[in-house]
Input
Amino acid sequence: MEEIEKLLNRVDKNRMPRHIAIIMDGNGRWAKEKGLPRFMGHRKGVEVVREIVRFVGRNLKEVEVLTLYVFSTENWFRPKGEIKGLMKLLERYLHSEIPELNKNNVRLNWIGRKEGLSESVLNVLKEGLEKTSRNTGLVLNLAINYGGRAEIIDGIKEIIASLRKGVSIEIDEKSFESFLYTNAFPPLDVLIRTGGEMRLSNFLLWQAAYAELWMTPVYWPDFTPSHLLKAIFDYQSRERRFGFARG
Output
């Protein structure tokens, strides 16, 4: 706790990221290295989600959105038993965490496709969104049944549907962003990936164009607020040029 306080005191509150996203990778490998079933890695990962959300909500008020890659469109290719376990974990997390989210003024949001998700998962998501809708603090944005390519395709389909209805749309980057799932959020500032892999894995492809990437070999079940603060320190040390050459 003392170390965390010291790290928090070093944070430059004038250069805080408004939107942080995390690819929570390494649950399975964490469990395997400990001789545990993969499910135990996912369960430990949920505990870390709880800790990180609580930490951000209470200590990093300048962060407006925390987007977590929970379940990708490609995760459906995993073993059916693992998928079933992941969905049950998600349901239990949402049911149990709603009071905690309300206590910390956190608003729940969800991005992704409905197709493929069970009625029970959709219902608990709807319940969570409704019960936290009046909260004004951190937005916990869960990417569930999400894929970056799917998001772009869905945006294109919405534009086509609007044009067919006679809506006049001047298609450029700015207008296209209004058709993305994240249209109500500030631009992505930092994208963190745990587990040591060096790829985006179809996550926030459009939004990550000029985000600062921070990769760590630490598996998600071992990720702590200290690691998050180190990612923020690294972000604050960088010069963001958004494609422009250094003067």
Notes: Strands lie at 19-23, 65-72, 107-111, 139-146, 190-193, 212-215. The mean pLDDT is 94.
